[in-house]
Amino acid sequence: MEFIDIAKSRYTTKKYDASKKVSEADIERIKEILQYSPSSINSQPWKFTIVGNQELKEKLGKASYFNEEKLVEGSHVVVFSVVESAANFEENMESYLAEGAVWYYNNFLKPQGDEKVQNWMSEQVYLAIGYFLSAIASMNIDSTPMEGIENDKYKEILGLDGYQPLVAVMIGYRDEEDGNQPAKTAKSRLELDSVVEVL
Ligand SMILES: Cc1cc2nc3c(=O)[nH]c(=O)nc-3n(C[C@H](O)[C@H](O)[C@H](O)COP(=O)(O)O)c2cc1C
Question: What is the residue range of 124's domain?
Answer without folding.
Answer: 3-195
